[in-house]
Specification:
The chain is α+β, with helices and mostly antiparallel strands. The protein is 57% helix and 17% strand. The strands form 2 sheets. It has a 6-stranded mixed barrel with strand order 3-4-9-6-8-7. β7 and β8 form a beta hairpin.
Length: 395
């Protein structure tokens, strides 16, 4: 007796019941897989971009806004700070290294950041073509910017006022692309980098309300030791006109905000998967009732208890595998659509087709859940009274 063939035919003998069970499992697995992929991508992206940055100094305002704008480039800056005051702070013996950032202009929605070459080194950036900027109005474009706008070494472009690209163009100050960065999977990919003097000179025109004293938007700080993290932020916040924000703390707060939504969706996914398991259980129980005579007849024709037992478990296993595979395919197709938006807006890259280790755990858990759901109905086949069932149907 071919148990596998019989189990496969039994699934299609009652298609509506099987489709309902598979649908429940598919939706549960798809949602759980989607949460795993998105959660890991967010975690990796946020941690990667704050690597090597202990503190961010900027204008007074929201600490989270300062972190999002200065590190992740996904929010409006809190304002500008005095370059002189920032450099005075940089001389503090507890500070090992600083990187100054100047915002204010953009190109077609992509931010132009005035900074030093240390900013590229911070994210292990490398050149795909050309060289790093040396003089004002020389620009190096990120890999994503280069692909999106077909910018290459030697091209010229004009910046627009504002970080959203909606302001007027500064046609009197053309930028020249001198280099293109390799893809790094960091914020570098979606930025245009130049010397800070480029930003200052553009905004030094009479039609801008700008102070004669040079200003920067933010300063990234790395401490010599953990002692600096404990003392210096309080000093900056209380004794200067600037604000100090700690990336690790603010990112944790951000994940706490995300955590509520993610936890809710995880509960929903778990409930759907449990309903799928219940559906497997009900399906197997109903199958035993509907096919009691068939199984008794199989037993009378020589089928062993273990073969009948295995047939029921195999049906549940097939349902679990089909639901899991369809769920994973659905989640990864969804990620493929989301990936473009997430990459463009937040610089987040989600692995589309590679299976995450947690997804392997999800696969195992789903299949085991289905087998356990079918275990009780399968055990009842062992205690089946063959003669009683056959006599009942004969009468």
């Amino acid at each position: 007796m071919n148990v596998f063939k019989l189990s496969f035919k039994n699934l299609f003998a009652r298609p509506m019941r099987s489709v309902l069970t598979v649908t429940m499992l598919t939706m549960g697995v798809a949602l759980a897989s989607l949460l795993i992929l998105v959660g890991n991508a967010l975690d990796d992206s946020f941690k990667k971009n704050i690597r090597g940055i202990d503190m961010v100094v900027g204008a007074k305002g929201s600490p989270l806004q300062l972190i999002l704008s200065a590190i992740y480039q996904i929010d409006s800056p809190t304002g500008n700070i005095s370059l002189a005051e920032a450099r005075k702070l940089a001389k503090n013996p507890q500070i090992k290294e600083t990187i100054e950032l100047s915002f204010g202009d953009s190109y077609k929605g992509r931010r132009i950041v005035g900074t030093s070459q240390k900013y590229v080194a911070l994210y292990d950036g490398s050149m795909a073509d050309g060289i790093l900027w040396e003089k004002p109005f020389e620009a190096v474009v990120g890999a994503q910017v280069s692909q999106e706008f077909d910018l290459k070494t030697g091209d010229e472009f004009y910046s627009a006022h504002g970080v959203d690209g909606m302001g007027h163009d500064h046609e009197e100050h053309p930028f020249t692309v001198v280099g293109v960065l390799n893809t790094s999977g960091s914020v570098l990919d979606k930025l245009i980098l130049t010397a800070p003097e480029s930003i200052w000179e553009v905004h030094a025109d009479a039609d801008h309300d700008s102070s004669a004293t040079p200003e920067i938007t933010a300063m990234l700080v790395k401490f010599r030791s953990k002692m600096g993290i404990m003392t210096l932020p309080r000093v900056v916040n209380q004794q200067t006109s600037m604000q100090a924000a700690l990336p690790a703390i603010e990112v944790n707060r951000l994940f706490e905000l995300f955590g509520v939504a993610i936890s809710t969706l995880q509960i929903v996914a778990l409930v759907i998967m449990l309903l799928g398991a219940v559906s497997v259980f009900v399906s197997m129980v109903n199958a035993l009732k509907d096919r009691a005579f068939e199984m008794a007849l199989m037993r009378s024709m020589g089928a062993s208890r273990s073969q009948i037992f295995g047939m029921i478990l195999l049906e549940a296993l097939m349902l679990g595998i089909i639901g899991t595979v369809l769920g994973l395919i659905l989640s990864h197709i969804g990620i493929a659509f989301l990936n473009t938006y997430a990459n463009e807006q937040f610089g987040i890259n989600v692995s589309i087709w590679a299976l995450d280790p947690l997804e392997w755990l999800l696969i195992t858990a789903t299949i085991v859940l289905c087998i356990f759901a079918a275990l009780l109905p399968s055990i009842t086949t062992i205690k089946m009274d063959v003669s009683k069932i056959l006599s009942r149907y004969e009468n």
